[in-house]
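Ticket 4471: requesting a sanity check on a complex prediction with magnesium ion. Repro inputs:
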Amino acid sequence: MEISVDIQPLKEFEETLDPVRETACYPFKILGYGEISTVIEIEHPAFRGIALKRIPGFPSRGAAERHGRLYENYNSILRGLGVETPEYGWVVVDRSDGSSILYLAQKLLPAESIGNRAIHRLDHEGNKRLIYSVISRLASIWRHNASGGEPLVGIDAQISNWSIKDPRSMELLYLDTSTPLLRLNGVEQMDPEVFLKAAPPLIRWLLKTLFLQEILDRYYDPHSILVDLVANYIKEKRRDLVPKLVKWVNEELKTNYTDLGIRPLSLEEVYKYYKTDARIWSIYLSSRKLHRFITSKILRRRYDYLLPKHIER
Ligand SMILES: Nc1ncnc2c1ncn2[C@@H]1O[C@H](COP(=O)(O)OP(=O)(O)OP(=O)(O)O)[C@@H](O)[C@H]1O
Ligand SMILES: [Mg+2]
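Returned structure tokens:
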């Protein structure tokens, strides 16, 4: 592995972390809240220049290690397909209460290099080059998948998952490797329980029986991935760009990627998708907060996830 994580200070951090109050023995900054992971930067010399993605909820140390190995695998498969990823590493921390927490490490990248920041700074031409650069990376994954490549590779292409390595060449790094989406002989390699564990019990059941397959399938379907990518600009407060993005994406599909046979996007489906998606995630977050309240305040038990205060939409 390219980054080795110093386990001792991390164990101290983990033992003292209060996920509800967001305090620990070392100060830390939260860089991003995900569905399963929280991205943090811990102020300690051992973690200088490292972003850590904390994933709780594993039933055993073995399960956490399996996810770590899958993370490694996903990184190397993406790189093999020409999708560059930041330097990485991982470590499992055993807490004294018996639970195992996985920490995925990644080279810490400058905040302004991340796509959702860059789209506010780039002019139209720059934004066009950025989305073309994203599409070219996606296309190499899709060509691999279309040619019957194993494992099948899924990806969450949202603009906040890319970092601009070099603005001139628009070379990119793909960040969101903490949810390794790989299917071997049609079987999802990640244990969906990791994802489900983050949800409150009732929602967990609903997700598992009704939506999980659909949610996962979307990351393997080029058209859906592109709709999600473009719709996400609305959340990132660039609604103004959306009609142009739809046009750019469709032109690009027609010019350079006809072999992939991807159905063009329509503006209506992008808007409609955004409305439903925004509603689902805000309901989901509210349900997690209710679960946190019941667990920590009423049952007085440990609630292990760091949650965003609110998501602006
Ligand atoms: N290596 C990094 N350096 C700097 N910031 C980062 C890094 N990795 C992630 N971030 C920040 O955290 C945000 C979320 O990270 P990431 O996309 O990896 O996870 P997620 O989408 O929150 O996760 P999940 O897969 O758990 O839903 C990013 O959009 C970025 O702003
Ligand atoms: Mg992300």
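Notes from triage: The chain has two domains: 10-107, 111-296. Leaving this open until the requester confirms.
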